[in-house]
TrEMBL record:
PANTHER family xref list: EG:BACN32G11.4 PROTEIN, ENOYL-COA HYDRATASE
Pfam families according to UniProt: ECH_1 (PF00378)
Family to which this protein belongs: Belongs to the enoyl-CoA hydratase/isomerase family.
InterPro entries xrefs: ClpP/crotonase-like_dom_sf, Enoyl-CoA_hyd/isom_CS, Enoyl-CoA_hydra/iso, Enoyl-CoA_hydra_C
Origin organism lineage: Bacteria, Bacillati, Bacillota, Bacilli, Bacillales
Secretion signal span: none
Highest taxon in the source lineage: Bacteria
Protein name: Enoyl-CoA hydratase-related protein
Length: 254
């Protein structure tokens, strides 16, 4: 239910149940967590892209699998949380390529990524409230941090479907891309990222992740540690040399 391919330095993970708008099942979620872990471990991978097959990105949990008597909390713990943790803790840059509708936990998956590229005609909806549920799969953590608590609460309480353009105005997505350009733009963006200083990208991510729970003094201490590490990378040393020689830097990710 998940396709995984590595091309050059880019791992592309495709949610693949197109007849149901890639609605999530326990099998799909298990495979998704394994794919993210595989990309995370593979040293040749410098970018992780997640996208959907067919006309949708992901319609959230497959509601046909929701049984009476099922404990949603336990389900989250077993199937969703490993995916969200894997996305949120990888040191590699992650891109959600939102090729079509993203609803419920389908939208939540994208919030745990570093970048969201969205097709101009894709619709986004938190949606949970419309079926009497709270937002989940990391959304209560990520959404207020991404767009501020007022807008986050509004989307959660109203459950509205918003357009790609609105999502951009709310600072929810990185970029809105014309439909015909979408695949080329995802490739170009991922290739650009894959040629950046990958190790330092990981440091930047770890440093920023530390920020939400820290004081200024904590963060000043953290930046000493990370800049000291960044300063010792091959990419930094080579890029300074290239600058002085008026050449373009070539980053190897180390
Ligand atoms: C679907 C689904 C779907 C099954 C479309 N399931 N078939 C939940 C429970 C437990 C524990 C943990 O956490 C969660 C997390 C959650 O994600 S809850 C939120 C679940 N998702 C939703 O409530 C969204 C439901 N879907 C929709 O609102 C619409 O389908 C959207 C806005 C996604 C797309 O609308 P359209 O583009 O108009 O497509 P459609 O509605 O015609 O859907 C196409 C087909 O896909 C259709 O099947 P059919 O046999 O009639 O062609 C839908 O029934 C099916 N489908 N979402 N979540």
């Amino acid at each position: 239910e998940v396709d995984y391919i590595v091309k050059g330095h880019i791992a592309t993970i495709t949610l693949s149940r197109p007849e149901r708008l890639n609605a999530l099942t326990s099998t799909l979620l298990t495979e998704l967590a394994e794919s993210i872990e595989e990309a995370n471990q593979d040293e040749s991978v410098r970018v992780i892209v997640m996208t959907g097959e067919g006309r949708g990105f992901c319609a959230g949990q497959d509601l046909k699998t929701v049984q009476p008597g099922m404990d949603h909390g336990e389900y989250l713990k077993h199937y969703y949380h490993p995916v969200i943790r894997a996305l949120a803790t990888t040191n590699k840059p992650t891109v959600a390529a939102i090729n079509g509708v993203a609803a419920g936990a389908g939208l939540s998956l994208t919030l745990a990524c570093d970048f969201r590229l969205v097709r101009e005609d894709a619709k986004l909806s938190l949606g949970f409230i419309n079926i009497g549920l709270v937002p989940d799969a990391g959304a209560p953590y990520f959404l207020p941090r991404l767009i501020g608590s007022a807008k986050a609460l509004e989307l959660a309480l109203l459950g509205d479907t918003i357009t790609a353009q609105q999502a951009y105005e709310y600072h929810l997505v990185t970029k809105v891309v014309e439909a015909e350009q979408f695949e080329d733009e995802v490739t170009a963006f991922s290739e650009f990222l894959s040629n950046r200083p990958t190790k330092v990208i990981g440091y930047i991510k770890q440093l920023q992740a530390a920020s939400s729970e820290s004081t200024l003094e904590d963060m000043l201490a953290q930046e000493i540690i990370y800049q000291s590490r960044a300063g010792k990378t091959e990419d930094h040393q080579q890029a300074v040399q290239a600058f002085l020689e008026k050449k373009a830097p070539v980053f190897v990710g180390r």
